[in-house]
Design goal:
Two copies of one chain form a homodimer. Chain A is 16% helix and 43% strand. With 380 residues, chain A is α+β, with helices and mostly antiparallel strands. Chain A has three domains: 2-122, DNA Polymerase III, subunit A, domain 2 (DNA Polymerase III, Chain A, domain 2, Roll); 134-250, DNA Polymerase III, Chain A, domain 2, CATH 3.10.150; 258-374, Proliferating Cell Nuclear Antigen, CATH 3.70.10.10.
Chain lengths: 380, 380
């Protein structure tokens, strides 16, 4: 194998595939990056068995030459050293070649590295997905779906299925739901007529896979093709191939958790409410579970309070945009409320309560596609 | 105590005094920030016994009002909460007041915090320095002196005196020296005639104190007054008072370590050499002490190599600007060399060797005020 490549291009691909490489792997060769050179270009692969990422650098694209003098071949290089070496090379181009003993030579200007490589025959073959279950969405829309839900997945392994995001297709909506059983985040996306050819209904994607995918995807309108099989999901763009296993098991039916009526509705400015709760939580960090209290007051006022006897107390007064229904006192995790409000870009939110001990719902005003649900904490 | 203060101004002072506050203090009240209000303005104090910092916010300065409605008084607030509270307040001004039980009320917009404060009578009195040993240097020059030496102090406590920087005044030069016994950094500053009134000759300032001071000082031409007593040193600007204890004991005489002749002199481009050594060190991290080898070659070439059998090897070829004297093979810590080259702003450096087992000297070209010395490592 031998080729000369643009360093920036190579570095970007390395950063992408590194997202799948973990320091703690059971198969030693997976601590490496697989490099494959063909006449079409260079393909890098990283995998930790759960996630596999391939990044392709075409020989030439839009008239710009990325790779030159390609001699086909492949090798696995140690991911612990290869990225730092490439990043620090002195010139804009790098020559990479292997000998018959899988010794890798990396050359750029006066710098010459010889790394012990490994034969790619030992590298696990990535599964080839055979599926008709494909649909496309825009990269920036997929990033939104991920950001608006993935924070709510469970981080404990007591119920493994809850560490994933439930992706459903129903009634011409693509629907992402995540819950850790204390709060829930839901985002719907109206789908166009392409849904004819899709016949999966519900899968559960590991939260970690979506978080890594979100870090790689660009905030652009580029189309991402999503393909689903029984065990795996593939996100594919022009030069990126992101494969994740799916979680086994049935995701709980969450729709019945969502109250269909409310006793108190509060309309508030998203940012003001977020900042008031953030401040109130400053003194709530040492009490149980970061709990703050919210109370409706006269003249459409809200009061948010928190109190840790050894430290002190905080009282936040806030004018709402409006209030309907009964007065209310409720306690909840400031962290959950902050997480929920942070992903809402709309200026105003609507919060629907059904009493101090029932879950409440946060939605952006005039946007029914985002729904956040939080279970209160018993303190009164 | 009561006053209304500009939040940004208060925040800056808090950040300054926080540099002296440590989570691990033996005197509990030192985990707090002391606030004193007088008709002149507000003074904040932070201290961990070793370092004490006072920051003063005048009531009014250059026609700009920083503090209003001052009622004199003082209190100690918990440093764990106070900075975050002030930073997150909603308005540009903050009202701070205490009651007779040292309860502190912090008010800004709809936010109201009540913090348990402590009586300042328990806060240790900072020593008042009585000394004539004062001199002034510019803030940016003092920052340079610190940056060019403090990295070389010892980080182990086997010889406590080496954890400090030796500040000497001799032959009309202010001289900073630091060494961990494997390398040495030295910087001289020609002093003006003011030195008449100074009669200290040599003190040792804890490296940590200088690092913290460097973080607070601005890169400006503002004058810093430096006062020295037997046990303490005070750095003072208009609104800042930075007091540090000095280290006990005699600093070793370092001048005799510096070779007065050389067998090989290499002239190199600072940045090129730094980058080549940085790359060579990538594969040296797992061998003993991050060691690289340097070898002079024909035609004014240098070769820097490193080798870890399990990983691979690197060969860096570099054109020097010139070479005088014998050929040379020498091994040294890449980290020490990188530290030494990083603080040199000049384009070219002069490296003087006296053989493979003798310390060598790195200096910027045409600047005799900076000197770096590194002890080689025996490998050949």
């Amino acid at each position: 194998m031998r080729f000369i490549i643009q360093r920036d291009q190579l570095m970007e691909s390395i950063q992408h595939v590194m997202r799948a490489i973990s320091a703690r792997v059971t198969i030693p060769i997976l601590s490496g990056i697989k490099i494959e050179a063909t006449t079409a270009g260079i393909k890098l692969t990283g995998s930790d068995s759960d996630i596999s990422i391939e990044s392709f650098i075409p020989k030439e694209e839009d008239g710009i030459v990325h790779v030159e003098e390609i001699e086909a071949g492949s090798v696995v290089v140690q991911a612990k050293y290869f990225p730092d070496i490439i990043r620090k090379l002195p010139l804009k181009t790098v020559e990479i070649m292997t000998d018959e003993n899988d010794q890798v030579t990396i050359r750029s200007g006066g710098a010459e590295f010889h790394l012990n490589g490994q034969d790619t025959v030992e590298y696990p073959q990535l599964p080839v997905l055979h599926t008709e279950n494909s649909f496309e969405i825009k990269s920036d829309v997929l990033k939104d779906l991920i950001k608006q839900t993935v924070f709510a997945v469970s981080t404990v392994e007591t119920r493994p299925i809850l560490t994933g995001v439930n992706m459903k297709l129903e009634d011409d909506f693509l629907h992402f739901v995540a819950t850790d059983s204390h709060r829930l985040a839901s985002r719907k996306l109206p789908m166009e007529a392409t849904s004819d050819q899709i016949n999966f209904t519900s899968v559960v994607i590991p939260g970690k896979s979506l978080s890594e995918l979100n870090k790689i995807l660009e905030d652009s309108e580029e189309k991402i093709s999503i393909s689903v099989t029984e065990n795996q999901i593939l996100f594919q763009t022009n030069h990126l191939y992101f494969l994740s296993r799916l979680l086994d098991g049935n995701y709980p039916e969450t729709s019945r958790l969502i109250p269909d009526q409310s006793k108190t509705i509060v309309y508030a400015k998203t940012k003001e409410l977020l900042q008031a709760i953030d401040r109130a939580s400053l003194l709530a960090k040492e009490n149980r579970n970061n709990v703050v209290k919210l109370q409706t007051k006269e003249n459409n006022q809200l009061e948010i309070t928190s109190n840790t006897p050894e430290v002190g107390e905080v009282v936040e007064g806030l004018s709402t945009v409006g209030k309907e229904g009964e007065d209310l006192k409720i306690s909840f995790s400031a962290k959950y409320m902050i997480d929920a409000l942070r992903i809402i870009e709309e200026e105003q939110v609507k919060i629907e309560f059904t009493g101090a001990m029932r879950p409440f719902i946060i939605r952006p005003m005039d946007n029914n596609y985002i729904l956040q649900l939080i279970l209160p904490v018993r303190t009164y």
